[in-house]
Every structure is written in C-alpha cells, then in structure tokens.
Design brief:
Strand content: under 5%
Radius of gyration: 25 Å
Shape: elongated
Oligomer: single chain
Length: about 55
C-alpha cells in the first residue's frame, strides 16, 4: 500500500480577492479612464491653488 500525503496548501488569496471573467452589473472602468480622471483632478487642484484666491 502506498502512503497518503496529507499536505494542506492554503488557497491563493484566502478568498479576499475574487477574479471573474463574467460581465457584472455595475460600472466597468478601463485603467486609462482612471488615469485620465486622476490627471484631471490633479490639474484642477493646481489651478485652484494658483488662482483660487482670486475666485473667492
């Protein structure tokens, strides 16, 4: 008879992160959209720091 190898290996990610190839209901953003939105917020912040005092 062969011996059983009882080795327990933890699951990858521990169930914290789930990857699915199915389309979900909700917002789907591409990375370029997130980068563009972040860049727009940075530009608006710079403009407000430079000219914000004049607007108030």
């Amino acid at each position: 008879m062969s011996k059983k190898n009882n080795i327990n290996i933890p699951g990858a990610g521990g169930g914290i992160f789930r990857v699915s190839n199915e389309e979900s209901k909700g917002f789907n953003f591409k990375p370029i959209h997130i980068i563009g939105f972040t860049a727009a917020v940075v530009v608006i912040e710079i403009i407000l720091h430079l000219y914000g005092g004049a607007l108030l």
